[in-house]
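Whether sequence alone determines local backbone shape is best considered at the level of individual chains. The sequence in question and its structure tokens are set out directly beneath this paragraph.

===
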Amino acid sequence: MAQVNFPFSDLKELIPIEKEEAIESLTMLGFPTEELENGDLTVEVTPNRPDALCVEGVARTLRFYKTGKCASYAVGKASISAVVDKSVAAVRPEFGGAVVRGISISDSFLRSLMQIQEKLHETLGRKRRKVAIGMHDLDKVAPPFRYFACGKEEVSFVPLDRKGKMTPLEILLRHEKGMAYAHLVGDMCPMIEDKNGNVLSFPPIINGELTRVTPETKNVFIDVTGTSADAVRQSVNIIASMLAERGGRIEEILINGDDYPLLRESKWPLPVKDSQRLLGIPLDKTEVASLLSKMGYRIEGDFAYAPGFRADIINEVDLIEDVAIAYGFNNFEPKLPEFSSIGHQDADSPYHELLVGLGFDEVMSWTLSNQKVEGKAKIPASAAVEIENPLTSDFTQFRRAILPNHLSILGESKSEKLPIRIYEVGPIATPEEGDALCIASMHPKADFSEIKGVVLSLAESTGKAAEVKKEESETFLKGRCAALYLDGNRVGLFGEIAPDVLAAFGIEQPVCAAEIEL
């Protein structure tokens, strides 16, 4: 969860409330809040509520909860336009914006602006990859604005915190923000400029010094660029409504001649029956409407209208969650279920007890894998359950073995104190789905005898006749590998990991391991 810090005086400036009441109410609303030693408040905000990543959003949430009155932001018609050039289509295609006029920016408000900008970059913006936000002093530039892509040495401007002009290439090589986010820019660089060619921003890297927002700023232009149209619009709505909480007047802008709608409410039927069913409490229509009002919804007849800055309202269940939060989880009465059952031990519990007793630590690794990592472990080629549309090359198939994951863990843990002994019980697919037990031990004296002793102890706990037969595998050192048979059925391999496999995972210590089908 993201944390937002601010002086309590900033909160009290926006809503008349005592500190203890604010801390208690925010915690009840799902935002755990504590007082720091210097008197500031620190609020933990869940990823689904980016609208609360600033003191203005926190104050608004408290105001809803205390008064039951929804937010009402007047949005003026567009008087400013922007043109999105086709050159950004393959670079950073999405663009959104708004104008907020008549604001008064104090030092504390300026800090809040900077904080929410960075918090949104880190969370909703996925470290600026998905969304990047710029805020500009509108009076320093001349609309209309143009969003386009150019070469790295085609333009120059003075970036924030610099006194001289720099090209995009120089910024990427020499400016701290440029070096931090250079991986987000390819051969072409996105730019926003006014009608006179003054550069406002080089998204997602840095804004221009010309449009720096200061306590003297009265009118603000918000630009948001990114790769997701929804995330861009959500960010514009959050920033615009935040500025409106400070008295600003919101205006839409025109993009390529079309209105860019802001803060549009979403309409939902009042979830009376489903609230009763899912929450188990007898709520009537009036009570559901009242509870949703405390969460900022506007109620009209049989419908609830979610505010436009709420990015987390996706379906009816989100409304029911808000009903539960407003009702108060402390007000739910515990109730015994109307059925009984007899507990039983999991089939793999004896393995856990034995391995923990032998000094092994349980790990839980990814159930998805890829051919590359399994190839490094020299897992024999066979059919795999592949992902039809993988989002990343790291997860393209269901794992056929657990051992490659354990070797990856050991490779990443080589600086930790030895010995490292780990085990895992989990699913595999070969392609038939089943469960397997993997054990690995890494230290200077790890050898075949150690892993054989562990494997035979496990075999003994099953009560089945165990037999060990010599076998060879590219994964294991030649002559230091064997197969385990239980009641005549081959169930797994164990031995010392081959040096070339260790090297492939960056492991510098001997490793002995076993993988057994359950």
Notes: Residues 266-329 form a domain with the Phenylalanyl-tRNA Synthetase; Chain B, domain 1 fold (CATH 3.30.56.10). The mean pLDDT is 93.
